[in-house]
């Protein structure tokens, strides 16, 4: 899978669809019968791309396997609530459409994209550090990049009504990737819905607060370092003057992680800080919405 390299300095590498904090009770996942649109030519190209990527992954000792994922078919963000319309897709389709853009499906619109919903978190330690993971060379894409802690909606996150438990999914991913137990996070809430400008994949961003200082978390991580997705943790101090220098000096950073840092600042220090940070980093203020609706 080809990494696209550093993003252009004259625009933000992410798109923000929703910039708002939500508690668990305010986020609703509802089942949707919205499969990805396609045609035989697109399906053949997706299958060929998948076979090529499987061969490349085996040669490079990278993890790559197909599996069910939860697809974001649409959403409604009005007032205090966020409704997510969730269908199903798979990793193979994600690779072919969002990642590889076979036959130019990006230009055909979101209805043609797998659009699995990513669920990932900025972890905030008790002494005020934002925690991210440097992705190892065993992952399928964005290897070597700093990223939020998380993954995608998967089959274990399905509910009896056919929907998905997005909060449970995020917590599952955080516990899998960090040496913490499910009882340790003190708080968990949504901070926004964003997209990588190149992949166009939607990501539901969370923040997780821990009653654990940064040094203790890092010591646990080093002690348990194995075959996980991250080779090390890197941490930014949660202060207004610290975020922009951190982004500039810790590249490469995924678009999603950059969006997470700016949304953290947006919610903590206001729109003025967010606008100044966007101008300093990208030469623009990344547009954002707070009350929107979208559907494929």
Counted up, domains total 1
Oligomer: single chain
Order of helices and strands: EEHEEHHEEEEHEEHEHHHE
Mean pLDDT: 91
First CA to last CA: what distance?
26 Å
Stretches where pLDDT falls below 50 for ≥5 residues? 1-9
The CATH topology, please? Answer: Nucleoside Triphosphate Pyrophosphohydrolase
Strand segment tally: 12
Name the helicity range: 25-40%
How would you characterize this protein structure?
The protein has a single domain, classed as Nucleoside Triphosphate Pyrophosphohydrolase (Alpha-Beta Complex), CATH 3.90.79. It is globular, with a radius of gyration of 18 Å. The chain is an alpha+beta fold. The strands form two sheets. Strands 1, 5, 6, 7, 8, 9, 10 and 11 form an eight-stranded mixed β-sheet that branches. Strands 2-4-3-12 form a four-stranded mixed β-sheet. Residues 1-9 have low confidence and may be disordered. The longest helix is centred in the first third of the chain and has 21 residues, at 40-60. The chain has helices at residues 40-60, 91-99, 105-108, 166-177, 214-223, 243-249, 255-269, 271-282; strands at residues 14-18, 27-31, 68-78, 81-90, 118-124, 129-135, 146-147, 149-152, 185-196, 202-210, 230-237, 292-295. α1 (40-60) crosses α2 (91-99) and α7 runs antiparallel to α8 (271-282). It has eight helices and twelve strands.
């Amino acid at each position: 899978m080809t990494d696209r390299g550093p993003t252009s300095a004259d625009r933000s590498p992410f798109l923000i669809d929703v910039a708002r904090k939500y508690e668990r009770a305010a986020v609703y996942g509802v089942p949707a019968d919205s499969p990805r649109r396609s045609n035989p030519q697109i399906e053949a190209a997706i299958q060929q791309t998948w076979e090529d990527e499987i061969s490349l992954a085996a040669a490079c000792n990278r993890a790559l396997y197909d599996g069910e994922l939860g697809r974001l078919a649409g959403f409604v963000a009005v007032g205090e609530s966020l409704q997510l319309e969730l269908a199903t897709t798979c990793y193979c389709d994600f690779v072919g459409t969002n990642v590889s853009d076979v036959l130019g499906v990006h230009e055909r619109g979101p209805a043609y994209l797998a659009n699995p919903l990513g669920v990932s978190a900025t972890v905030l330690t008790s002494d005020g550090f934002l925690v991210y993971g440097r992705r190892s060379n065993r992952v399928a894409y964005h290897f070597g990049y700093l990223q939020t802690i998380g993954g995608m909606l998967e089959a274990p996150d399905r509910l009896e009504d056919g929907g998905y438990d997005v909060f449970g999914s995020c917590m599952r991913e955080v516990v899998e990737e960090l040496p913490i137990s499910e009882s340790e996070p003190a708080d968990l809430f949504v901070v926004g819905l964003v997209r990588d400008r190149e992949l166009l994949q939607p990501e539901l961003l969370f923040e997780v607060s821990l009653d654990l200082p940064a040094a203790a978390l890092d010591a646990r991580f080093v002690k348990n370092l194995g075959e996980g997705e991250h080779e090390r943790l890197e941490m930014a101090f949660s202060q207004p003057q610290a975020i922009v220098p951190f982004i500039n000096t810790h590249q490469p950073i995924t678009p999603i992680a950059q969006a997470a840092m700016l949304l953290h600042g947006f919610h903590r220090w206001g729109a003025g800080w967010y606008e100044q940070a966007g101008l300093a980093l990208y030469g623009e203020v990344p547009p954002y919405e707070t009350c929107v609706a979208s559907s494929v």
